[in-house]
Amino acid sequence: MPDDAPALGLAARPARSRARLSRSAPFVVAGLAAVALWVAPAVLDTFAVNVLTRSMIYAVLAVTVDLLWGFAGVLTFGQAAFFGVGAYATAMALTYLGATPEWMAVALALSVAAPMALGLAVGWLSFYHRSTALYASVISLVTPIVVTQLIYSGGEWTGSSSGLVGFDVLPLELEGFFRLAALVLVAVTLAAWVFVRSDAERALVAVRDNDARCAYLGLSPKRLQIALTTVLAGVAGLAGFVFANASSVVAPENAGFLFGTELVIWVALGGRGTLLGPVLGTIAIDYLAANLSGDLPFLWQLLLGTAFVAVIILLPGGLAELVRRVWARLPFGRRQAVAPRLVASSPRPNAAVSGAPLLKIENLAKSYGSLTVLENIDIEIRAGELVSLVGPNGAGKTTLMRCLSDGTEPFSGAVSIGGASTAGLTPNRIVALGVGRKFQVASVFESLTVADCLLLARAPHDRLSPIGRAETLSLPQAALDVLRMTGLDRLLAEPTRLLSHGQKQALELAMVVALEPRLILLDEPTAGLTKAERTTIGAVLRTLTGDGVAAVLVEHDLDFVRQISSRIVVLHQGRLALDGTVDEVVNSELVRTIYSGGAHG
Ligand SMILES: Nc1ncnc2c1ncn2[C@@H]1O[C@H](COP(=O)(O)OP(=O)(O)OP(=O)(O)O)[C@@H](O)[C@H]1O
């Protein structure tokens, strides 16, 4: 249980009550929108009701595209395919089974389940194998093409190029379908709005920024991305269900690549990453299109294309960016970022320290093609030891750290942590064994704040809420010490991209310490730091090892190594040249020769 004292965060009471007020904003806006849309059919003409019903269904799709592209950073053209599958599942069920309440329920279930199954397959293909965001976008391009071809090949089952028409639908009037579309849009947008303001959403942004770092914090980027793709495919399918009922017609174009591209354009024009921008943008553009495209079919496309190019160049954040800029100039529009209050987490009981080594490396060898980088490496490290790994440039130190923290890295020999083999384990599963790794180049999430980065580092211990933001951030005492000693505790609400090099290094160290690892791997943690910062890091490492944590430190600063190490391992040309106490290594003739460039393997 977190201890409520000492509270180190900013005591920003007015800002906090404003934050609480802003938390209720989505519900107030959704309530007002629902009431306005409920009464709207009474004042709109039939044409407007008809068109806006379709526009609102498309806006649901825009929300899903925005979550994937604007927040998770995956540009997708595939939402049209999931929408089409949902619409076709509904149309086929209603055509061939009938529209009784029971079959309607079956149609609804199919319209969500079928796109989710396809979404799971697409997500797996896109993200499972260390693929890039570009690869995912290409698959999202191919999906609507494949789905459309399947519809064309479906013969009379799918109606081929004519689609399916005239099936029985929900017993609603035009106004009823308008209200149903409005209800789904308000519910989906509200759920998305609550999610994007939650702690769990920070994980999506972190994956977008730096998925490798996420894996080393124990998160599974690919699982997150596959889950998001699957859920949003289901939401697109639900929109397809409403569309099929409201229009009583489905056609291959509804699942097509062109429609998928239009969705992306609408989201870009509305302002990706803003949620309300894409919703309002989609409704406005689709409504305008319905009004203008009949009279000006070619000119309309030209206008839309020109607007797209102009917005991309002049307003990369879309029309929502314009609104945001104006809003920010208003006195009440300036938002003060609020950081959670820091509290000390209660110390976790240390696993009984046995005499057995915590880290055991046996006969490890690693090659890149014909280049042998590591050979015959045998090292054992016990709890509480701080072992420095030194050696000239290119000796293989970073490669060894990589082999220790990623069991999928191809190498021969064996590595075990706490008796468990790491063979085949992905970095996030090695984190679960109690390993924390700090990279050579400070690796933090540039779109997030200091507090967000620390929050993600606590994800293996404290679940990230998908519906809200935590008001407190509980960290182990050692992580609090790093923050306090480096002044980061006063910069919790600061975006990390504004931090200095030394502050980023300290933040990454605090993140690794926040994982509460048993074994900590540090690659040049003092590179580019001032003397005072180096002293701080040395003090933190001494405290950690005093508490029974084992540490492996790659370091070029030999004075620093001498001061804090309990043992030094010297690597030279991929081989273990010496493994001894500080005195043994410092006084070794061999080490002097290696560093003067005189020893050759
Ligand atoms: N991905 C790679 N492909 C091919 N060779 C690589 C790769 N990564 C590292 N190497 C080579 O492996 C050798 C060891 O590199 P490594 O980065 O592990 O050394 P290091 O001791 O950490 O060096 P430094 O102190 O400069 O960081 C070098 O010769 C390097 O060129």
Automatic annotation (TrEMBL):
PROSITE patterns: ABC_TRANSPORTER_1, ABC_TRANSPORTER_2. It comes from the Bacteria. Keywords: ATP-binding, Cell membrane, Membrane, Nucleotide-binding, Transmembrane, Transmembrane helix, Transport. The chain crosses the membrane at residues 25-44, 56-75, 80-97, 103-125, 132-152, 177-196, 226-244, 298-320. It is a multi-pass membrane protein. Coiled coil: none annotated. It is found in: Cell membrane. Belongs to the ABC transporter superfamily. PANTHER family: ABC TRANSPORTER ATP-BINDING PROTEIN, CONSERVED COMPONENT OF ABC TRANSPORTER FOR NATURAL AMINO ACIDS-RELATED. This is ABC transporter ATP-binding protein.
